[in-house]
Amino acid sequence: MNNTLLIISREYLTRVKKKSFIILTLVVPILFAALMVVPVLLATKGREHVNVMVVDDNEIYINNFVENDKTSFSYRSGDIEQIKKEALAGDYDVVLYFPRSSQKVNANMYYNEEPSMYLRSELESQINNMFFDHVLQDTFNIDLDRYKTIKDLARSQITMIQIDENGGEKESMAEMNKTIGMICGFVIYFFIFLFAGQVLRGVLEEKNNRIVEVLISSVKPIELLLGKIIGIALVGLTQFLIWIVFTLVILTGVQFAMPDKFMEMSGVNTEQVMESVKDSQMVEAVNNSKLATEALGEENIFAEISNYFPISFTEMILCFLFFFLTGYLVYSALFAAVGSAADNETDSNQLTMPITMPLLLTIVMVMPIADNPNGKLAFWLSMIPLTSPVAMLTRLPSGVPLWELLLSMVLMVLFFIFVVWFAAKVYRTGILMYGKKVSWKEIWKWVRYE
User: Fold this and answer.
1) What's the confidence (pLDDT) of residue 302?
2) What DSSP assignment string belongs to 47-114?
3) Which long-range contacts does 237-244 make (Cβ < 8 Å, 24+ apart)?
4) Does one domain contain both 149 and 296?
5) Are residues 120 and 188 in the same domain?
6) Torsion, Cα of 373, 374, 380, 382 (10° steps)
7) Statement to judge: residues 212 and 75 lie in one domain
């Protein structure tokens, strides 16, 4: 036990003192924060006030565009060449021209500096709505008010309500559950391979440098194996926690430094969403989300959002940590065994291919699992230990029976015990073997040695 603790301490301290660890630990939070902040800055920059000159030869859109605090409209008629020259040389950013047409919408946008995609989307949305109303009224003689009344009455909405084992009812947001499940699946896949790969490279490095020959003379192979796996696991957890803390600190600092930008972005998003879902069944959902946002002043945001989840955030986090740790331990033990049997990265890549295929298959199947979290495919993938970390985390936000979750956890623990036994058998033989290309058939022979 003392030897294992010494190896854990050595692995941990050696790796956290490396320049690559320090640089990666500092750079990644900056990149994460940039991924969140840069789109905000670009979006707010792209929403500067725009003056639009509208020229309509069909006289359908004259005085019909709806202005907002970011877009103003003016209207003229006459020669388009003369108008666009004068408008773009003056105070106008865009000239929107509708050539004469009786059957479909044709429009040309003239500008000196390319406008934002949001402006184009906003204009197209308004144009489509106005042309649709024009066709209803002028071509089919349908009263617009009566049409909108009928459309509102004919609108349907399905509310998802899940009934638990005790008969209790809980409103569910299936799309949000599906999205969160897929994100959890991809995140756990990324971290398992990131940190398990470090174990493989560490074993290869020590074997090629002959350091392991000195270590193996003082400690048992199983102690060396467990020390390396647990030490690198602690390095990974340390780095992961630092990433989270630093990212939150950077985002908080940026938000305090530029509160107007974030407030503006928040307003733009609300306005854009409301405009895009106007006269659609999503209006009620958006209104509900606004009411929920107002309620957050009195209740915790996590408690508010968790009302739509079959499990609590605490259970979700604990399950994530469990499957992350057990998934990492399983794959790192297998990678350590492969690293001990190989002499270089090329050979190790060939040997790890059969090990990584189940997890790669699960990533490919993340979408079907999220679409049908209680189907046979999702069930069996969440029971097989090599695939369960990704599959079970993808299913969890949509609700998993307790017995299935516990069974998956028990299978993961039992499989980890088997994998450690298997890896120790391979490690004790392969770590001192050089200059020979090993196959899985020969590795199996090592396992059967007494």
Assistant:
1) 45
2) TS-EEEEEEESS-SSTTTPPPBTTEEEEEE-S-HHHHHHHHHHTT-SEEEEE---SSS---EEEESSP
3) 238/12, 238/16, 239/21, 239/24, 239/25, 240/191, 242/25, 242/29, 243/25, 243/28, 243/29, 243/32
4) no
5) no
6) 50
7) no
Domain range for 113: 48-153
In a domain, 163, yes or no: no
Q: Give residue 40's pLDDT.
A: 63
Residue 434 is assigned to a structural domain of this protein: yes
The list of the chain residues with pLDDT below 70 reads 1, 39-47, 102-104, 159-174, 212-217, 259-313, 435, 449-450
Give pLDDT, residue 213. 66
Instruction: Judge contact between 359 and 263, C-beta under 8 A.
Output: no
| CB contact at 8 A, 412 and 388 | yes
Please state the φ and ψ torsions of residue 101, each to the nearest 5 degrees. Answer: -160, 145
Cα 205 to Cα 3, 199, 210: the distances in Å are 20, 10, 8
78 and 224 assigned to the same domain: no
Structural domains in the chain (count): 2
Domain assignment of residue 248, yes or no: yes
**What is residue 282's predicted lDDT score, i.e. its pLDDT?**
42
* pLDDT score, position 170: 61
**Rounded CA separation 291/140 (Å):** 39
Non-local (6+) Cβ contacts of 241 within 8 A are none
> 28-68, pLDDT tens digit by residue?
888 877 877 776 666 555 567 899 999 998 888 889 999 98
**How is residue 63 written in tokens?**
């005085």
Residue 158 lies in a domain: no
pTM of the model: 0.64
Tokens found for residue 354:
């059969």
- Is 163 in a helix, a strand, or coil? strand
**Are 8 and 139 part of one and the same domain?**
no
Q: Pick from 153, 185, 212: which residue ends a domain?
A: 153
